[in-house]
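Structure ticket #2291
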Amino acid sequence: MISVGIDVSKGKSTICIMKPYGEIISMPFDVNHVEKELSNLVDMIKKLNGEIKIVMESTGKYHLPILIYFLEHNLICSVINPLIMHKYANTVLRKGKTDKLDAIKIASYGIDNWFKLEAYQTNEETYNELRLLGRQYSHYNNLLVNSKITLITLLDQSMPGITSFLKNSTNSKDKNKLCDFVTKYWHFDNITNKSQKQFISSYNSWAKKKGYQLSESKAIKIYTLAKEGIPTINSNSPSTKMLLLESVKVLKEIERTLTVILSQMQELAKTLKEYNVVREMNGVGNILALRLIAEIGDVRRFYSGKALVAYAGIDAPPYESGKFVGTKRKISKRGSPILRKTGYEVMKSLKSHKPKDDAVYQFIIKKENEGKPKKVAKIAGVNKFLRIYYARVKEIYQY
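Resolution: structure written out below.
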């Protein structure tokens, strides 16, 4: 038994090699994540006599270069949840925090839990790429929300109330009526400088050019709003126009990026067996199906539906002591927040469409009728939904 403990950091790792009973074969040393040094490390490990297991913490993306390199050279690697390693490190009385000490603790963990260590299984490249795209989608979606807030805040100062009049009436993803309007009329002064008749003609000309519905009544309402509104920033300031137009550009660019990401995700997801099965589940649309598959990945890596629920962080661990049995338990939230959010959005979709023959929807209604708060009922629904998801997708790969 030889445990190779690796404390991974950005661009380098600290290595400690240990045998049972705390016998250290090699004191901690640093290795940079470059071909030459990793090659020397692999040669060193392969020369060791005995069964070898490499142990490292999951550190986001930093551990991937060294992990992939080891796997390519047919070495057994085990990637440990940081929370588990943190709890193990806290069992010692005298605490310290350095890369060398961490490498020793990780190597020691490998010895103490030798028979529990599971070899890291490489997921298919499609799942890895989908997860990367899914995470980037979430990132840009957050940017989109912040960009919309920024634009609306500026419009509340240059054209207060205008956002309630301009909502997209087209299904085209390439159009944004509010952004297009602001590009042409970015301040009430640009509207009130015209007569009502001139603005109606200008508005309808703009709408026709951009592919929106012509509406004289809406043009009159916007003109009236402009006449009565009180802007709080000056249209003569060059900063006003610049900030508004740049906000529109940023918002449009983020929307374009999201469209490109979703398009790429769709191409990848369609190559997977489970895509049609997930897409056909109630409450799951085109976008939610992609996000679910991207975040869950290959369900075959979970030993049961219960494990998938735990991965989402919506399991409620039992709490018992003596004769006391805890009944008011909260979800652990130790899992993927993106999957929790996506699952919750699926539940909102179910509540919106109300499919009477759907088991998850009926389960949510049952919990609400029992007096559970609506949010709690939806979380319970996510739990049931993920178990069904696991069963249906797992069934595909059993044949």
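Closing remark: The chain has three domains: 2-116, 129-268, 275-396.
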